[in-house]
Fold:
Amino acid sequence: MLNFKPASRKWLITGLIMVFLAVCLVGCGNQDADTSKELEQQQSAEPVTLLVSAAASLTDAMSDIEKAYQEEHSNVSFEFNLGSSGSLQQQIEQGAPADLFISAAKGKMDALDEKDLIVKETRKDIVKNTLVLVVAKDNDTIKSFEDLEKAKTIAMGEPESVPAGKYASEALTSLNLLDKVKSKLVYAKDVRQVLAYVESGDAEAGLVYQTDANISDKVKVAAVADESLHSSLVYPAAVVKDSKNQEQAKAFVDFLSSDKAAAVFEKHGFTMVK
Structure:
């Protein structure tokens, strides 16, 4: 059995304390080094500009999404191409540059998928919207879809290229109203133009998304279309196959499903896809 003298015990304890302190300092040093390395990597990340083709109804939400994303990815900037989903789909088919596509209709994304123009595994359904009938705030004549028979002009998106127009056509057909009001229809290039027609008085009523109605102080919602009246109103997103920034584009698509992005979308009236 080892027998330490008092002096030896003192030196032994002192030595153990020194070893313990050294281990702690090395650990802290490594942690600081790791933190510094992470900051250095973030600061030295190559700047990249993502080209985003997105449905016009996402205009306001995308502005806030951009700011939220850049809080964590300061090296990423954005260029948004906003318009009708059908027009954007055609542009991508014709080779227009885009890193990712966010459509207001599954069918437009399906068309690109069938032509192998998107990275299939990156495709995600992001948000849902609601179709509504809007009129000028001082209009007390039109209070329901059935009242559209009283309207002189009704604005809606072009059904072939504008998803909101497609949903509107489906809803009016389900309500047995399309044939009755067809002569009164005025077609627009995208849903924001429909809203503008009603705001300016060029159309007495219009069919837009709830999110579009929310941004205007010149119109009011006269009626809400039950979702059973039209096909599923879901916005899918996916990375475009010809993108030169696929990794960064995929990271942004993933971000669109995050809690941080959800708070932005919900503020603008969208519902997240669970």
Q: What stands out?
A: The chain is about 45% helix and 20% strand. The chain has two domains: 48-128+233-272, 131-229.
